[in-house]
Write a structure and sequence with these properties.
Protein name: Dinitrogenase iron-molybdenum cofactor biosynthesis domain-containing protein
Number of domains: 1
Pfam families: Nitro_FeMo-Co (PF02579)
InterPro entries: Di-Nase_FeMo-co_biosynth, DiNase_FeMo-co_biosyn_sf, MTH1175_dom
Shape: globular
CATH superfamily: Dinitrogenase iron-molybdenum cofactor biosynthesis domain
Order of helices and strands: EEEEHEHEH
Strand content: 25-35%
Amino acid sequence: MKIAIPLAMGQLTAHFGHCQEFAFVNVEGGKIDGMEKIVPPPHEPGVLPKWLAEHGVTHVIAGGMGGRAQMLLKESNIDVVTGAPVEDPEVLVNAWLAKTLETGENACGHDENHVCSH
């Protein structure tokens, strides 16, 4: 399992499409088995879901994400969790694995026809 988390200054950012980098967290046997941080390609509609799929991502934990991005990720068989709090990637993944990750509303809140561009 590979979980992607959009980051700004090392923590989750609500702005999925405009993050500084992604943490790719590898999970084996229910535990974190490594992490790398990678700068994504420039933001264009539809680019990030394809890029994440090409990197073998299976899950995304995000603060906010537009409906179109969620749809494209799901089409690539990538599970999406939105409404996660601003936190370090390891803390988020460990909470998600323990089924204790508390999520609120999708911080983007746009419908599927709009792009989240805060």
